[in-house]
Amino acid sequence: SRRIRAIDLAKRKAEGRKIIALTAYHAHTAGILDPYCDFILVGDSLGMLMHGMESTLPVTLEMMIVQAQAVIRGTSRALIVVDMPFGSYEASPQQAFLNAARVLKETGAGAIKMEGGARFAETVAFLVERGVPVMGHIGLTPQSVNTMGGFKVQGREADGERRLMADARAINDAGAFAIVMEGIVEPVARAIATAPEITTPTIGIGATMACDGQILVLEDMLGLSDRVPKFVKRFGTLRGQIEAAVKDYAEEVRSGAFPAEEHTYQPL
Ligand code: KIV
Ligand code: NA
User: Fold this and answer.
1) Catalytic pick among 15, 122, 129, 182
2) Is 115 tagged catalytic?
3) Which of 215, 202, 117, 198 shows the shortest CA–CA distance to 160?
4) 2-12 tens-digit pLDDT
5) Which residues of the chain register pLDDT less than 70?
6) What are the pLDDT digits (tens) for 75-102?
């Protein structure tokens, strides 16, 4: 069996089958998700989730490449999509292509994702024409935190629907194989996801159930992150489970209950 390709997501949409996606940064967790996800995103959220950064802005291309290599090693089926970090694609279509080509060549991933709407349409087209499948990302785009003035839900302002529809339309028409829609008020997100002119699959995160698929940050949905946005449903309670295991370990080492006979090596 071969990996799912970027172009296969269009088939899911055509058949009305939901597109399932999660993020992963590590070989072993990616391997657990692999049978259940159409695509796995190596998100630049790794800056916050793995490294404790306050935003995704300090994340480098090298960091993305190292974790994408890990995720590729741990998987065999899902499409792997890698985020282009802040500063690696905005300057020009040429800059974006050179860095995206590095990502695909050095990791074996099947696609990249770039934040931004209408003003990045030219870059999306430039990459797609040159063999780089591009996933768009509109609405709440965390790399713009400093110009947006925080992580704010998008589409509430008077011309919000018009602006976001124009962003989706531009990225769609430029040839993106899918569009992530993040943090967009429900009626606006629904209008975009159900618009006949948006032919490429839409992937929601804090958007609408009308999207063709959904994505969440793995650590958030597992209950490992300490603070999560309203749009996250916690499907697990990993933080509590890890804490309980660490407490048991500490107690057993202290009391001498661990290691027991069966954890030691005897001479032959
Ligand atoms: O970096 C990331 O994890 C993302 C998802 C939230 C879509 O971009
Ligand atoms: Na991201």
Assistant:
1) 182
2) no
3) 117
4) 999 999 999 99
5) 1
6) 999 999 999 999 999 999 999 999 999 9
What ipTM was predicted for this assembly?
Answer: 0.99
The torsion region of residue 139 among left (phi > 0), alpha (psi -120 to 50) and beta comes to left
Question: Class assignment of domain 8-237?
Answer: alpha beta
Handedness of CA 107, 113, 115, 120 (dihedral sign): positive
Q: Report the pocket of ligand 1 as residue ranges, CB < 6 Å.
A: 23, 41, 43-45, 83, 180, 182, 205, 215, 217
C-alpha 140 to ligand 2 mean position (Å): 10
Please report, for the chain, the start and end positions of each structural domain, with discontinuous segments joined by +: 8-237
Structure tokens at 54: 């306050």
Q: What are the backbone dihedrals phi and psi of residue 132, each rounded to the nearest 5 degrees, phi first?
A: -105, 110
Distance from the alpha carbon of residue 83 to the mean position of ligand 2, in angstroms: 6
CA-nearest residue for atom 6, ligand 1, is: 217
Pure H helices in the chain: 8-15, 27-33, 46-49, 61-73, 93-107, 121-129, 145-148, 160-173, 186-193, 218-221, 238-255
Ligand 1, from 20, 137, 215, 216: best to mutate by most atoms within 8 Å of Cβ? Answer: 215
Write out the two tokens for 209: 């159930």
- State the pLDDT at residue 85: 98
